[in-house]
Design a protein that fits this description.
Blueprint lengths: L17 H7 L2 H4 L3 H17 L5 H19 L12 H13 L12 H37 L4 E6 L2 E7 H26 L18 H7 L9 H6 L2 H27 L7 E3 L17 H24 L14 H23 L1 E3 L1 H8 L6 H10 L4 H17 L9 H5 L9 H4 L2 H6 L9 H16 L5
Antiparallel strand pairs: 1-2, 3-4
Helix pairs in contact: 3-4, 3-6, 3-8, 4-5, 6-7, 6-12, 6-19, 7-10, 7-19, 10-11, 10-12, 11-12, 14-15
């Protein structure tokens, strides 16, 4: 298949083979960057005109043509097939077709190396804004559930074994806190990414008197990447971003796993609406939590993207290397997957109902208040380790007798310690257990209410990047 002579072909005696061109073409995935590429080009050409490297009229013509190309791409009227090599050359080639040789002046003082680094940073800023918006949306859904189910007590788990009674609201708010850290990580990533690489050219800068600070201001950057070699060879911002996405997915996968467990017949703690579950092709009775399972599964994709970008960048010498063309595939996939999972998870939770009666039933037949009994003995003057041992023996006895602790008599308890009296039975009620908590950040009603008030205010005033 014949293809246009590449813009870089002057030094070469033979054209690039079709096989090599197809292998090296990146336009199938980097065409997603067309908006960023054109926005960067417009800022660049406005600077070139301002510092009189090109004339004002040349700048006007280039800017006008670039805006027309944007409309052509969005209308599907510009051929972006693989033989165009990449989005940068495709746009520049179309520019010269439209306005002739003056279009070639756009590339004065820059290289594809700093151009792609700019495009990625612009795309990253938009992605961070979108993800933060979705994080806040999910936090608000969790807060809604925390208010709706306030004072509903559930078994808290460690090692997936029942541990102590906690408010279901407290459980939801734990994820609000996790997501807040995710929000902050993205903000931190943006700070380091929001520096302009354009003007570094290939690696050494340019002899043209360009004004990098002007371009940075036009594009909303906080400054420039000071070292030109670092500007074109750095991909820390992608590594950091995909790592932040991976942490988001860890948090979503943990809650997804709980929804899978809690919606099972064995737990029956939660019911997900039909609209967010699926059936079986052979078993008519099945109602499967597929959306939660897919979130859990897609976590591996984002982890894979992180491994890919780390491996691509490992041991690369300065400055730009063609290996780095492969950075966009894991980058785009991490953005898309994390965005979709945050979006669907909010909808899953909105359409999930938690079984208050089932929680209450489960609290009656367990040893969730054993820690309260141990603390009771400590308050009677018994060292904690001894109190722990005494309580453990009581639990073992009750388990052997197939009784809950509340079903034991005072005589049963006194067999293990004379310090027990009738007041111990008040502690065996899970509601009393949570109400007795005093430490900041605990599952006590007052502390949970404080968290709800705090997050209501914080999320109302949340500012996105």
């Amino acid at each position: 298949m014949p293809h246009s002579k590449p813009l870089w072909s002057g030094r070469f005696k033979e054209p690039l083979s079709e096989i090599a061109l197809k292998f090296s073409s990146s336009i199938d995935f980097d065409k997603q960057l067309y908006q960023e590429d054109i926005a960067g080009s417009i800022a660049h050409v406005e600077m070139l005109a301002a510092v009189k490297i090109i004339t004002a009229e040349e700048g006007r013509r280039i800017r006008k043509a670039l805006k027309e190309i944007t409309r052509e791409i969005e209308g599907g009227h510009l051929d972006l097939s693989w033989e165009k090599e990449d989005i940068h050359l495709a746009i520049e080639r179309r520019l010269t077709q439209k306005i002739g040789p003056v279009g070639g002046k756009l590339h004065t003082g820059r290289s594809r190396n700093d151009q792609i680094a700019l495009d990625e940073r612009l795309y990253l800023r938009t992605a961070i804004h979108e993800l933060q918006k979705l994080i806040v949306q999910l936090q608000r859904v969790l807060l809604y559930h925390a208010e709706k189910y306030f004072r509903v007590i559930v078994p808290g788990y460690t090692h997936l074994q029942r541990a102590q009674p906690v408010y279901l609201s407290h459980h939801f708010l734990a994820y609000v806190s996790m997501l807040e850290r995710d929000f902050e990580r993205l903000s931190d990533c943006r700070k380091r990414a929001n520096k302009l690489p354009l003007g570094a050219a290939a690696l050494a800068g340019t002899s043209f008197p360009i004004d990098r600070a002007m371009v940075a201001k036009k594009l909303g950057f906080d400054g420039i990447v000071e070292n030109s070699m670092d500007a074109v060879s750095d991909r820390d911002y992608l590594i950091e971003f995909i790592a932040a996405c991976s942490t988001i997915m860890i948090h979503l996968s943990r809650f997804a796993e709980e929804l899978v467990l809690w919606s099972s017949q064995e737990f029956s703690f939660a019911t997900i609406d039909d609209a967010y579950t699926t059936g079986s092709s052979i078993m008519p009775q099945k109602k499967n939590p597929d959306m939660a399972e897919l979130v859990r599964g897609k976590t591996g994709r984002v982890f894979g993207s992180l491994t890919a970008i780390l491996t691509i960048m490992k041991a690369l010498p300065l400055a730009y290397n063609r290996d780095m063309q492969e950075d966009k595939i894991p980058f785009f996939d991490a953005v898309t997957t994390t965005r979709e999972c945050l979006f669907i998870f909010s909808h899953i939770l909105v359409h999930t109902h938690f079984n208050k009666d089932r929680f209450e039933e489960e609290l009656k037949y367990d040893f969730l208040t054993a820690t309260d009994v141990a603390e009771y003995l400590v308050q009677k003057g018994i060292p904690f380790r001894e109190a722990h041992s005494i309580t453990g023996k009581i639990v073992a006895y009750a388990a052997d007798q197939k009784k809950s602790m509340s079903q034991l008599t005072l005589k049963d308890l006194k067999h293990y310690s004379k310090e027990f009296s009738d007041d111990v039975f008040d502690l065996l009620d899970p509601h009393t257990s949570v109400e007795r908590k005093k430490s900041a950040g605990s599952t006590s009603p007052n502390e949970v209410k404080k968290q709800i008030v705090h997050w209501t205010r914080a999320l109302k005033n949340k500012k996105l990047q």
